[in-house]
Amino acid sequence: MDINKVAVIGGGTMGNGIAHVFAMNGFNVNLIETRQEFADRAIGTITKNLDRMVAKDKIDENKRNESLSNITVFLEVADGVKDVDLVVEAVPENLDIKKTVWAAVDKHAPGHTILGSNTSSISITKLAALTNRPEKFIGMHFFNPVPVMKLVEIVRGLETDGATYKVVEETSKKLNKIPVPVNDFPGFVSNRVLMPMINEAIFCVHEGVATPENVDEVMKLGMAHPMGPLRLADFIGLDVCLDILNVLYEGFKDSKYRPAPLLVKMVDAGKLGNKTGEGFYTY
Ligand code: 3HC
What we know:
The chain is α/β, with parallel strands linked by helices. It has helices at 13-24, 36-55, 61-69, 77-80, 95-108, 124-128, 162-174, 190-206, 212-223, 229-236, 238-252, 261-268; strands spanning 5-9, 28-32, 71-74, 86-89, 114-117, 137-141, 151-156, 178-183. It has two domains: 5-183, Rossmann fold, CATH 3.40.50.720; 190-276, N-(1-d-carboxylethyl)-l-norvaline Dehydrogenase, domain 2, CATH 1.10.1040.10.
């Protein structure tokens, strides 16, 4: 099966990046948001990022305009999914919100539609069970900033079938991304490896081993990471990091995943990183 038309649900940081890459690679995209102002903000961000690519000679003006014209905004899931081949859900990591969204998608999307979630922490098998087609449900986990990062972690739930995997793998390649298959376990591979590193960096600050700047310098200069773990944590969102660590901790019942108390305290204080203007750094 060829994917031509895609619905991206949610136009936040991940959703607008996902819509951007599909539209830029010739797919028709229905971008679904809950309010016009959120949709306008998403289109504004996509436009700004496409303009940046034009300024850097990565794409030309025609490509920019064609990409934007490939995106149509919808404010109802029922309208936005009724004629698509693939859905990619990128709504907040809240199970109640996801339940409402997936019930609507399952009701209104055609029978052949593949259902993908960009969740970074919720079990794909659990989300698949919210629908009547768990064999067509799969994780499509993109990385921030989506237009730049090459990886799509493709997560197979317990019942995801081989045909669904194949289509999503091929589609990811058409986005100029590199798909990597993993099975559905807490944190998949990406966050199971990344989050303990970030957590340990926070323990280093908490225990006075080094300042945030110095922890980050060690990892940037010594390990060739493009960003240190604490700046990356701010970039991802400290609330998101805490949620994922809790999923690992609950999922494995292993104390090695316990979130650093300093991380919990910062989230309690509303210091969530870039998005609130303060985390381990100020912005
Ligand atoms: N859209 C398009 N292009 C973008 C962009 C965007 N949103 N953001 C950055 N770029 C481009 C820039 O134009 C620039 O292009 P160039 O190399 O051709 O000049 C390139 O990306 C690098 O950007 P900058 O020069 O502005 O800045 P940096 O060199 O500092 O790179 C970075 C920024 C790409 C964010 C880099 O620091 C990086 O790779 N950081 C690590 C990011 C990472 O680990 N992401 C994964 C987070 S985990 C996740 O998402 C999963 C979730 O489940 C938690």
